[in-house]
Amino acid sequence: MIHPIGVIRRGEQSFVRERLKEYDLVPVEAFALHMIASLDGCNQDTLCTRLEIDKGRVAKLLAGLENAGQITRTVNENNKREKLVRLTERGQEALQYVNETLDEWNHICMQGFTEEEWTQFFAFLHRIADNVAHSRKEGWPKL
Q1: What CA–CA distance (Å, rounded) separates 107 from 96?
Q2: Which pLDDT value is given to residue 19?
Q3: 16, 49, 50, 115: least buried by Cβ within 10 Å?
Q4: Element (H or E) spanning 43, and its range?
Q5: Following CA atoms 91, 93, 98, 61 in sequence, which dihedral angle do they give, to the nearest 10 degrees?
Q6: Per-chain mean pLDDT for the chain
């Protein structure tokens, strides 16, 4: 039996990847833009932890975003060895496009649902995400 969550995830990945091509982005870059926006002025180590990606991959990811003019990396005045990452105006525009794409995906998924069902569904998703985060932090339990 095919698991419905797997079908949804593959559909989302395909949809998002196709839409992001129009803005010359890949999904990990879109996720990074969200994280950078929420952690305005964060350093690369923080991004590694939050994105759960190794330092080399994050450095390459940031270099690509910087070359595309979507982020800046500036020296931290309190720690000259550290660079802080921020979205540029172009990065904010890209993030807006990403958000519109995700809103479009949510609209596709939630067709025919009432607002109450939608609210309940997202509450369940947040609980599931919390469960996953807790289990990952504690070391995946064996059932």
Answers
A1: 16
A2: 94
A3: 115
A4: strand 42-43
A5: -10
A6: 91
140 against 55, higher pLDDT: 55
Instruction: Give me the amino acid identity at 138.
Output: E
Q: Tokens 């890949």 label which residue?
A: 26
Q: Given a cut of 80, is residue 16 above it in pLDDT?
A: yes
pLDDT tens, position by position, 97-140: 999 999 999 999 999 999 999 999 999 999 998 998 888 888 88
Mapped onto helix, strand or coil, the DSSP state of residue 41 is: coil
pTM of the entire structure? 0.82
Question: In the Cβ-directed half-sphere of 30, how many Cα atoms lie within 13 Å?
Answer: 20
CA R_g for the chain: 18
Helix axes of 27-38 and 4-21: crossing angle, nearest 10 degrees: 90
Placement of tokens 């952690």 in the chain: 39
DSSP 73-101: EEEETTEEEEEEEEE-HHHHHHHHHHHHH
